[in-house]
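Protocol step 4 of 6: record predicted structures for both targets in the notebook before any analysis. Target 1:
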Amino acid sequence: MELVCPAGNYPSLKAAVDNGADAVYIGFRDNTNARHFAGLNFTDQRAIKALDYARNNNVRLFVAINTYAQADQWSRWQYAVDACADLQVSALIAADMGVMAYACEKYPELSLHLSVQGSATNAAALELYHQQFNIRRAVLPRVLSLKQVQALVKKSPVELEVFAFGSLCIMAEGRCLLSSYVTGESPNTAGACSPASAVRWEQRANGGMDTRLNGVLIDRFSAYEQAGYPTLCKGRFKVQSEAEEKIVHALEEPTSLNTLNLIPQLSEMGISAVKIEGRQRSPAYVAAVTRIWREALDACKANKNEFQPEGRWMAELSKLSEGSQTTLGAYSRPWQ
């Protein structure tokens, strides 16, 4: 299985490449990608440098153009596709049908991957994307059970990729209605859950920190807690029960996906690639997660029948995860 790793900047790309990634995915510095945060992503020149470093190390480079194009900004998405073709990247990851149509009609030689944002959860959807846009791979949503994934592999006309490690979201693969409600900007169009223009950190007199999203208080941290990036779904709020009032994660506890122990099953069923989430994370994070997954995939390949995640892998990943960990998120649910 191919190990696909994130890079929000050039140091992260080098970290992924140097620690064993088979492919690295990046985005351009605008709202054509779903990690459009200040300080992240690549200019044209930076993308050329990234491509050179990846190719010199026999690593493939993917570019995510995975938001939904807006009518008054369509030329921006066209330019992004044109740039991918000029760079001759290994693959373009897209969700918008208009973007895919433009890419496959103008650049038929450009390899298209269906983003998880496209939400293809059945064989008919995969067949449609393959017939209409000649996609060569699809990234599956995490709402599927493991048995559903297995059934899809048997019928899919294209390679399939699944998420392996990283933060989970309660929304359906980036379709964040909560962020849209509070900020008026959808991650699917603006490219960011909790856009930076709406985020505020406020220091309190006692050393603590308040975080707000468009004026809405999302969380209140003590002086001894690290203040996380404010997202509405993972904020802490007052919740009143019959017995008492508590301040808790009302919608979702911070949770990370960890599928390390499922590597043999995913390999056996024919999954082509496993993907690490985290273009918004640090180079140190990318390096550590990539290294562990490289070791684990190599160990499984050497002896699939005896493979077991090593304790040191799990211990390190627990330090890097967001809150608790779960096995393949919703993938571990029973057949539906």
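Target 2:
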Amino acid sequence: MDEQINKRYLANKIFETQFALEDLRQIVREALPTGMTDEQSARFSEIVSGLGGLVEEIGAKDGQTQPVSIVGDLMCRTREEEFINIQPIQAGGRLTPEARKAVIAYGDGYSTCDSCRKPFRLDKIEKPSIAGFHTDLAEFVGMDQARVVPGARRGFQAVASTLVEKGDDVVVSAFAHYTEFLAVEGAGGSIREAPVNEDNILTAESVAHKIDEVKKETGKLPSLIMIDHFDYLLCNEHDIYGIGKVAQEYGIPFLYNGAYTVGIMPVDGKKLGADFIVGSGHKSMASVAPSGVLATTEEWADKIFRTTQMVGDVTGRKFGIKEVEFLGCTLMGAPLLSMMASFPYVKERTKHWDEEVKKSNYFLNEFLRIEGNEVLSEFPRKHALTKVDTTNTFDKVAKTHKRRGYFFSDELKKRGIVGEFPGATRSWKLSTYGLSWDQIHYLSDAFLEIAEKYELNIN
């Protein structure tokens, strides 16, 4: 490295500077259109005079500083600034600089509604171009229409509440996420799990067999098939194209769960044979939580995006343009604008998915040089998220270390790495997604250094 920097110092000083600017912004907000009061002007000048010193301190790149308070004991989060973060659920949700700027500018509750005109619905707003974003979003995932929703789980819920009747069966993977269960339960349906094979992969044959089993037992087909492309337990890739063909052969609607794909790798719903695509904004689209995407084909759009038909019995009021499953309008404010701001970058990064997979496999090959380390996910990897096992390496050290399993967290943190489950030295998950090659090499070397320090065998 050309120059040492104190990342904690810089993070805190940058936050101090940003907060000073926000204080200036607040004075501007409070001032009359005709100008500031003497008191406001004096306070404004006082803050401006302090900015020069803060900028000089940032330029020093090193020094002593305390954690910065937002208010009371609510402190700044400096995790992404200080460390290489391998936490699996955070990797694809890190905000772009553009998204962070959007949060600053559009943080007010109803900021997106300034230009809401007839027909008074979020996805129809032209300034900012929310309407255009919905069109681009549908095209991005290879579908006809799309809506933004407060997280992938609300996408599951919208589809299940529309398609699943009381007593209906829904086929999911044996590795399905719990929110899929809850969406079906909320609609009054029952879950039927298609088992994975000995390699922990869900095949088209397994799904077809489960459909036949349901038909034989109940006399009718499942009302929905809901399958994850990459599951959250091992993040293995399942036979999603084959499952799409099975769904079409049986004539059963197919929901593709792209929580770990939409926004980080190319996804084309029609090529997949999907009727519905669900994605997670805060998990895979560099967006503020809670945020997500639900997209569908023209065939299903009128049902999933149905508008209210109800009329008030006293007033005769009706709200025909409002969509029932989303209670009229869905995602608004900072979560939506952050997704929009990150979208150009997100579209571009999906074109480089192969490089992300290559980085994942490079790190894991170095990780496996430590004798006894294992990769529990399918290997070589097809994703940047992986479940590993260090029972025969770092867990052996933990058995005699005074800090037990926390020694490993300590050693990683000393090297500027966080995100593994604190105290975990057996099976745990990590993600290398979004790390540069320099960071990948540093991460790999850190694991080898820790192994060497505790006299573990390295190939």
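Step 5 preliminary note on target 2. Residues 7-30 form the longest helix (24 residues). DSSP finds 17 helices and 14 strands in the chain.
Proceed to step 6 after PI sign-off.
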